[in-house]
Amino acid sequence: MTSIVVNEEDGELESRMALTAAVMADKSRSRMLCALMDGRAWTATELSAVADISPSTASAHLARLCEQRFVVSLAQGRHRYFRLASADIAELLERLMGVAWTSTASRKITTPLSLRQARTCYDHLAGEVAVRLFDTLVSRQWLTADGETLTPLGEEKLADLGIVVQASVSRRKFSCGCLDWSERRYHLGGVLGAALLTWLTGQRWIKTAPGSRQVTFTPSGIRKLQMIFGINMMR
C-alpha cells in the first residue's frame, strides 16, 4: 500500500489560503473592501452604510478584516478609521475583480461610464484613460512593455514634467502593469503609478469626490492630457 505523507507546512498554507478566501466570501465584507479601494480611510459607520448593515455587524466584520490583515485601524482623536492594509491587498482585490468579471455568464459591460473612464485603484489611476496612458508610455519607450521598468528616456521625460520617483524601501514594486478589471488590459501600478496619480492631482488635472472611486478630469486636465500624452478624451 502506498502511503501519502502530508507536509505540515503545506497543510498550514492551505488552511491560511482558505481563511483568506473566506474573508472575501462574505458579500458585506466585499462591499467594504471595494469601498476602501478609493485609498481613503473610512469610519465604521460609513462602511456600515456602504454594506447596508447595522453598525454593530459592521464592527464585527471589520474586526475580522483586521485580524486577517486586510484592513488596518487608525485612531484619530475620538474617532477610529479603517483603510486597506497595503498596496498588495489592493492589487489582490483588483485582480479578483477581474477574475470575477470574466467568470460571469454575461460579458456585457454594465460598469457606469464614469467609472469605466477614470477611477482610483487604491493609490493609482485606473479605467480607460489609465489604460491608454500606460499604452502611451510603452509606445513612446518611456516604459518597458511589461510595465516593470522605467527606461532612461522615461526617467528623463518624467523628470522634465516634475515627476521624480525614488524606489520604495518596502517590498512594493517600483512599477508594474496592474490588470484593469473593466478594460481587461493593464494600467500603471506600483510606486510609479501612485506618484503619477499624486502628480495629476497636484497639477489639478483631476478631481475626486469623497466616498467615490470616480475621477473627473478638469478642462485644463483634458487639454494637457492631449497636449503632453496625445490622449484625446473627447473622442
From TrEMBL:
SUPFAM superfamilies: Winged helix' DNA-binding domain
PROSITE patterns, per database record: HTH_ARSR_2
GO molecular function: cadmium ion sensor activity; DNA binding; DNA-binding transcription factor activity; lead ion binding
Family matches, as Gene3D superfamilies: Winged helix-like DNA-binding domain superfamily/Winged helix DNA-binding domain
SMART domains associated with the record: HTH_ARSR
All copies of domain HTH arsR-type, residue ranges: 9-104
GO biological process, one term: response to cadmium ion
Pfam families assigned: HTH_5
Sequence intervals crossing the membrane: none
Protein name: ArsR family transcriptional regulator
